[in-house]
Write a structure and sequence with these properties.
Blueprint (H helix, E strand, L loop, with lengths): L13 H7 L2 H8 L18 E5 L5 E4 L3 E2 L7 E2 L8 E6 L6 E6 L5 E6 L9 E4 L4 E5 L7
Antiparallel strand pairs: 1-2, 1-9, 3-4, 4-8, 5-6, 6-7, 7-8
């Protein structure tokens, strides 16, 4: 597993993160919290576009890899690139899970499970509050 660490230029103090993020974003992204299932803005979201880290705005997932897992959280079968997210072992709450972190800022996004659809077989189960959404922009030919 790869440990998530802030990249150079992304280092912020706890006080700076608290000032930049909402209370709920801070709780999830910086304190590894989880939002309640079926309550987040993106669990039933169907627009086309890019999902970014709510803390640092790095591209993480696209609508093309989003699917309805029935879990109550936005689910994706693949991140935008091999360097967008990193994983680490999470042994909290008496379970062993694979935590997903933003590769740029180290923010907690959610967990990944090996029960997703093809082509990857993965289910990135991500907290909505950890994400921002950029709708797909029409091209100049449209």
């Amino acid at each position: 597993m790869t440990e998530g660490r802030e990249q150079p230029g992304m280092s912020r103090t706890d006080e700076e993160w608290r000032a930049e993020l909402s209370d709920e974003q801070y709780r999830v992204l910086r304190q590894k919290g989880t939002e309640r299932a079926f309550t987040g803005a993106y669990w039933d979201h169907h627009e086309h576009g890019v999902y970014r880290c709510a803390a640092c705005h790095a591209k993480l997932f696209t609508s093309g890899t989003k699917y309805d897992s029935g879990s109550g959280w936005p689910s994706f079968y693949e991140a935008v690139g091999s360097g967008a997210v990193v994983t680490t072992t999470d042994t909290s709450h008496g379970m062993v899970r694979t935590e997903v972190l933003c590769a740029r800022c180290g923010g907690h996004l959610g967990h990944v499970f090996p029960d997703g659809p093809e082509p990857t077989g993965l289910r990135y189960c991500i907290n909505s509050v950890s994400l921002d959404f950029d709708p797909e922009q029409p091209t100049s030919e449209e």
